[in-house]
Amino acid sequence: MLVFEDATVGYGRRAVLRGLSFTLEPGRITAVLGPNGSGKSTVLRCIEGQSALLAGRMPVEKLSPRERAKRIALFSQRLPAPDIPVEELVSYGRFPHCGGRLGGADRDAVERAVAATGLEGLRQSSVRRLSGGERQRAFFAMLLAQDAPCVLLDEPGAFLDPAHHTALLERLCALRAEGRAVGIVLHGVADAFRIADLILLVADGAQVFFGDTAECARGGYVERVFGVRRLDFTAQGKRYTVFE
Questions:
Q1: How many CB atoms neighbour CB 167 within 10 A?
Q2: Which of 50, 62, 138, 188, by CA, is between 20 and 30 Å from 225?
């Protein structure tokens, strides 16, 4: 479990968000929501070590980069395009465990990640030559290969077509079922209500809400922060939530 206690996060000495008190719990998905520019990504980058904890407490802050990488895997919003094969990129996820010398267990982890993301036919393709959606899947495979107990994702659905977007949400639910702590920044609020157990809502430089998804829905927090209207409906026996 990762616990933030009255934390302030930002870059250098510049605070982006204050008053963060929330947890990332094993076997639960926490969705981070907020208007554009509200600092959602900064929260994940602080956990992973790319932005600063300026005040408050976060237990992993004193870990070495390698130990942190063993415990926390981050899918970033900014993805480079190295001219290397997809299979090699995915293998980078094993480096915190093996230091670059892949053993049998590491290769097995790479194979599982490639298969889970449907990249078997692209394993020797250059990452630089992939489409945006294919590149997203390749980096997600690297995250899976890292096999960390805490998984952080910054808007991972960007560039994905509807079928792969649905497959991504299903994979996140599978990670939850494996007992991982999943923290995800989402642009689509409806996706958060579809898969998340907990909602962290931020706006205007501060935490607005943290708690169960159902409690967030009852309180109307999303409607107030985003200025939208919530609609619930049922189709083919499934319940859906949309915002407009």
A1: 16
A2: 50
Task: Single out the residue of 132, 133, 154 nearest to residue 143, CA to CA.
Answer: 154
pTM of the model: 0.87
Residue 131 vs residues 8, 164, 168, 169: alpha-carbon distances, Å: 37, 13, 17, 20
Helix extents (H) in the chain: 40-48, 65-71, 86-91, 95-98, 104-116, 132-146, 162-177, 189-195, 213-219, 221-226
User: What confidence tens digit (pLDDT) does each residue in 131-171 have?
Assistant: 988 998 999 999 999 999 999 998 887 778 888 888 888 98
CB 124 within 8 A of CB 72: no
Three-class SS state of 146? helix
**CA pair distance 85, 76, nearest whole angstrom:** 19
DSSP 173-221: HHHHHTT-EEEEE-S-HHHHHHH-SEEEEEETTEEEEEEEHHHHHHHTH
